[in-house]
Amino acid sequence: MEGIIQFLPFWAAYLVCALTGYWCWNRMFFWLAADSDVRRFVRMIGAVLLFTPAPIAQDSNYFAPALVVLPFTAISEGVNTALYALNWLLAALCIGVLVLGIHQLLLWIRGRLQPE
After folding, report:
1. Residues 53, 89: Cα–Cα separation, whole Å
2. pLDDT over 90 for what percent of the chain?
3. Which parts of the chain span the membrane according to its record (predicted)?
C-alpha cells in the first residue's frame, strides 16, 4: 500500500484522467438505451479497464493501472510473466458482475413490490 501513498499526486492525476476517459467511454455508447442491461455491462467493463490497479511486478508493493501493467510486462518479460496482472483484471471483472447482479436483483424486487 505504501506504493500508492508514496505516489499519491500521480495517482490523483491518473484519477482525473481516468474519470475523463470513463466519461468518454460512456459517451461512446450513446446509441444504447439509457436503462438497458447491455449499457450497464459496457459501463462496468470500462470502469474495470480504467480503475483496476495491479502490482508493477509480482509480489511488489508498488501499483500501477492494470491496463498499463499487462501489456508492458508482456512485452518486456513475456506473456506468462504478465498473467498475474490479468488475474487482477479478472477479479475486478468478477466483482463488477457481482455488483451488476445485485443491482439487477434490487431492480427486480423493487418492480415486484410496486403496485401497478
Report:
1. 8
2. 59
3. 12-34, 41-58, 88-109
- Alpha-carbon distances, residue 1 vs 7, 13, 29, 64 (angstroms): 10, 18, 35, 12
Residue with cell 457481482: 98
CB 52 within 8 A of CB 88: yes
Query: Are the C-beta atoms of residues 92 and 48 closer than 8 Å to each other?
Result: yes
Whole-angstrom distance, CA of residue 13 vs CA of residue 7 = 10
Q: What is the pLDDT of residues 58-112, one digit of tens each?
A: 888 888 899 999 999 999 998 898 899 999 999 999 999 999 999 999 999 998 8
Chain segment 33-47, per-residue pLDDT in tens: 888 889 999 999 999
DSSP line for 64-111: EEHHHHHHHHHHHH-HHHHHHHHHHHHHHHHHHHHHHHHHHHHHHHHH
Q: How far apart are CA 49 and CA 53, in angstroms?
A: 9
pTM of the shown model: 0.82
